[in-house]
Amino acid sequence: PRNIAGPGSMLNDFQVDAKGKTIYIADTSALAQNQAIIVYDVEKKKARRLLKKHPSVKNGHYSVHIHGKPLKMFGIFKPKFGVDSIALSRDNRWLYYAPLNGGVLYRIEVSAVSNETLSEKELGERVEKFADITMSDGITTDDAGNIYITDMENAAIHRIDQAGKLQTLFKDSEILRWPDGFSFGPGGVL
What we know:
By secondary structure, the protein is mostly beta strands. It has helices spanning 110-114, 120-124, and strands at residues 11-16, 22-27, 36-41, 46-50, 65-66, 69-70, 83-88, 94-99, 104-109, 128-132, 139-141, 147-151, 156-160, 166-171. The longest helix is centred in the middle third of the chain and has 5 residues, at 110-114.
């Protein structure tokens, strides 16, 4: 509904929990600058818009550059993107997310996001800065608790361990033009 995803919303990346009961959606809102995380309860058919005023979902201070050139919309406007990357830990304990051009990966416990009695302020106090990252448009997690992030500015794929240490796994500007979404295939191949 319009009160959840109104004019200017840009519902971008999303995660579905393992039971298929809850969907977590990043509202990037590049034009309206009204970023938030939307949580949709599949059984109740009810959506909630969360963290809408919190700094962790707002656009970052970096200008987006791809292969050394500034990204422009309509040839003139340099967009600022809010929360974009979003992923659940495999144990469903943490929701990880990051503004595309923010340089920080945040996390919040799923139990806090699910708690409808928490105020926006109380929910915001439970957000944790997890790691400094590159500009990222997509993330995922593995069974060992690692977080994988794309880096469209540097045409790279990185892995972050549970200590928050970032390691570059692959970098190639010919193969990766704007890396975004991830998927694990047979045998655990990313």
